[in-house]
Amino acid sequence: MNNTLNSLNELASCTFPPIVKVEELTVGAKYKILQIKKISTRFGPCVVCRLEGKGDIFLPRRLEKDLNDDIITYLLAGQGSHLMYQGKKVISSKLPANIFEFEKIDYDETLQEQ
Question: What is the superkingdom listed in this entry's lineage (predicted)?
């Protein structure tokens, strides 16, 4: 509920987190996911992920169809999840793809951080 109130207050005050480019993420670093939402843009539907201490990042289009509401709920449930940028991988002779990994945060991990 508090997250919903924070989102509403951001809209009301016109303060939004910065848009983060993939190149601004550190390869292998864990970023806590605060929010995941599907949005429509002039380029079509996409998924935006809000990362703690960073801002919003647009995830690759290839994830949009498979990131359904059940998966989003699972990723945000409990202690939440991390998003890790794994770098680029050449998938064809023309286009490298940005590779990401999602990881659930377990209870023991949150105790170690305190």
Answer: Eukaryota
Given the structure tokens 């995941």, which residue do they identify?
Answer: 36
**Per-residue pLDDT at 90 exceeds 60:** yes
Q: State the residue range of the domain holding 60.
A: 16-113
Q: Which pLDDT score, from 0 to 100, does residue 91 have?
A: 81
> Which pTM was predicted?
0.79
Residue 50 lies in a domain: yes
43 in a domain, yes or no?
yes
Contact indicator for 7, 20 with CB cutoff of 8 Å: no
The single residue listed with the structure tokens 């601004």 is 24
Structure-token pair, residue 98? 């940005």
